[in-house]
Amino acid sequence: MSLNYIVPIIIVIVSNIVYHITTKNIPKDANSFLSLAITYLASTVIAIAMYCLTSKPSRILMDIHKVNWTSYVLGLAIVGVEVGYIYMYRAGWDISRGSLVASISISILLIIVGILFYKEHIGMYQIIGIVCCIIGLTFINLD
């Protein structure tokens, strides 16, 4: 496996760990949406800096024409994810169980999306894995 294959998943894993730890620690009396606005301001600064490091800033007008509706829908989805996790943790979900239940549920639903809309195929091993995940979700939520 090449680094081009491994590095992105490492970034996703490390970033998700930091994400869940920081989200769990947002003060309960802080306004969720103001907290997110500050988060997005920091994200905007970082994203613009990364754009400038990886592209010619003089091309921004040409590059912006390549952006479509997906950026706006992604923005809406990100707000939903963020506020959902904030409320989930404020409602008392453990960091270990809450993120696991969400991730497994998302994964199972994305398998269905992949099959229905992207013509992806799954084999018997993947079906067994899905069943194990569903059984795992049941056990994780038993007290």
Automatic annotation (TrEMBL):
Q: Does the keyword Hydrolase apply?
A: no
| Protein name per its UniProtKB record | EamA-like transporter family protein
Could you name the domain of life of the organism this protein comes from? Bacteria
Q: Which InterPro entries match?
A: EamA_dom (IPR000620), EmrE-like (IPR037185)
List the transmembrane segments.
6-21, 33-51, 71-88, 100-118, 124-142
Q: Would I find Membrane among this entry's keywords?
A: yes
Q: Which SUPFAM superfamilies match?
A: Multidrug resistance efflux transporter EmrE (SSF103481)
Keywords recorded for this protein, A-Z? Membrane, Transmembrane, Transmembrane helix
Family to which this protein belongs: Belongs to the EamA transporter family.
Residues annotated as domain EamA? 10-141
A GO cellular component annotation in the UniProt record: membrane
Q: Which organism is it from?
A: Clostridium chromiireducens
